Amino acid sequence: MAEILTAAQRVVLARHIARPGTADFIAALFTDFFEQKGDRQNREDPSILGGIALYKGHPVTVIGHRKGKTLEENVAYNFGMPGPEGYRKAQRLMDQAEKFKRPVITFVGAYPGLEAEARGQGEAIASTIARMSCLTVPVVTVVIGEGGSGGALALAVANRVLMLENAVYSILSPEGFASILWKDAGRSGEAAELMRMTAADLLELG
Predict the structure, then answer these.
(1) What is the pLDDT of residue 66?
(2) DSSP 3-state of 123
(3) Phi-psi category of 59—alpha, beta or left, where left has phi over 0 and alpha has psi -120 to 50?
(4) In the prediction, which pLDDT does 113 show?
(5) Residue 94: which of 64, 73, 122, 69 has the closest Cα?
(6) What sections of 70-139 are H helices per DSSP?
(7) What pTM was computed for the model?
């Protein structure tokens, strides 16, 4: 009989450096991917990867959080923590998709960094959520790793939300939850169980 993993063990797997990320799924599932960069206001944010691709011959817009697999890549991608520019880029791609009637597929696997708040992170996330809520084209989201807080939700307002078996999806990290509830980040394993953040938990909760 297969061993049943704890929520804390699934958090470890969701964060594993070798876990496939958005770029891996794009390479495996799509053809003719054409990356689009920049938010047309400030700068390019490489922690959001997005563009146009073909899925089984049909044009789609693909957007996702991007982490690195090496220290150099993680630094380049800000450890998968988008700034406001990344969410504005996502909005630009969503507007394109709506204009040209392309379905949107998003990959969620990151959460926002605190330092971005000074540049309008909260507003950028909120406006991205609002923009996704207004899309009339089909939207499918796949939670592929660790999805947390508004940064994850900003790419997850979808007609269908899917989640990989060892991904986690929550309001914040277990360490943050434990720090708030018990003033002890060391109780993150206990927090992970209490938060009901695994795919099985969320499926059961509907």
Answers:
(1) 93
(2) helix
(3) beta
(4) 54
(5) 64
(6) 71-76, 84-100, 121-133
(7) 0.90
Task: Give residue-wise pLDDT tens across range 80-115.
Answer: 888 889 999 999 999 999 999 999 999 998 765 555
User: 188: how many CB neighbours lie within 10 A of its CB?
Assistant: 20
Beta strands in 5-130 (DSSP E): 31-35, 48-55, 58-65, 104-108
Closest CA to 7 of 199, 186, 163: 199
Vertex 134: Cα angle to 130 and 138 (nearest 5) = 120
Q: How far apart are CA 81 and CA 147, in angstroms?
A: 11
The pLDDT score that the predictor gives to residue 112 is: 53
CA atoms within 13 A on the CB side of 109: 35
CA–CA gap between residue 132 and residue 30 (Å, rounded): 22
How confident is the model at residue 102, as a pLDDT? 98
Q: What is the DSSP letter of 38?
A: -
Give the containing element (helix H, strand E) for 15.
Answer: helix 7-15
Q: Which two tokens stand for residue 75?
A: 């630094």
First-to-last alpha carbon distance for the chain, in angstroms, is 27
Tell me the residue type at 205.
L
> CA 156, 160, 166 angle in degrees (round to 5)?
70
**pLDDT, mean of residues 132-146:** 96
Q: What's the token pair of residue 29?
A: 């599932």
Phi-psi region of 89 (alpha: psi -120 to 50; beta: other; left: phi over 0): alpha
What gap in Å lies between CA 66 and CA 78, rounded to an integer?
9
